């Protein structure tokens, strides 16, 4: 069996695994697997809304945020005051928070699971398709020293912030960063996309096991590191210092603001092709750079495309 045939077989096998995983996760999240009437129709979903509880209040000033939730969409954004609001299904969970020593701590307790191991609440997800929402705001001029979010089964969205250290661990759900300046950014997404837009960071470390990684109008000043198991990496912006990308099943595409003469690179596509500024380089391309800006990119089954600025 030649290299191309092996690659096609690997690709087909990975697609089959991906399809099974996506179908399973969709079922767990409440996707319909039938048609007709019954307790799973839209009327049943609307009746669930009666169980949604809401809490909202201004809190004391904080410079740190520590969130540990299971089934809440998390929104962290600039607003008019230090404020927190939540909407959750009181049949399954309770949301609590407090500000201590300048840190806002938020946690979710899953009812009836006090003696069970912590994990994604599959029973809750299947029985109620409405995720809760948790929204935290801070006023203009606030610089957050640290933000830590641990979310099991919903997305995390950070907008218009200034944060020294941001760490997100999302088991199932997308992570989005918009119009935000961060010193150190670390994201671990098991099943979901990572999108970074109109933002700047000093250092980045991303891990995405099933989903895509995208940046747009993004600035990284020192180091960008990303691992993707099943999904593409598409980066657009100004990446400086060391850029290390490792993609097992998927393609890598870079659209950089910097000129080619400013970068060194080592590009290796095991079962794919490498293209630099429109030129076909085969499966491997290297170049020595004049300084610290360097690209080190590897794909197991996918192409690599790099385009530099004029």
Protein architecture, described:
This protein is mainly β and 310 residues long. It has helices at residues 3-28, 42-48, 122-127; strands at 52-58, 64-69, 72-78, 83-89, 93-100, 103-110, 132-138, 144-151, 156-159, 162-172, 175-178, 181-191, 194-197, 200-210, 213-216, 218-230, 233-239, 242-249, 252-259, 264-269, 274-276, 279-280, 284-287, 294-301, 304-309. The chain has a 25-stranded mixed beta sheet that branches. It starts with a helix and ends with a strand. Residues 1-6, 26-44, 114-118 and 120-129 have low confidence and may be disordered.
Entry summary:
With 310 residues, this protein is mainly β. The protein has three helices and 25 strands. It has a 25-stranded mixed beta sheet that branches.
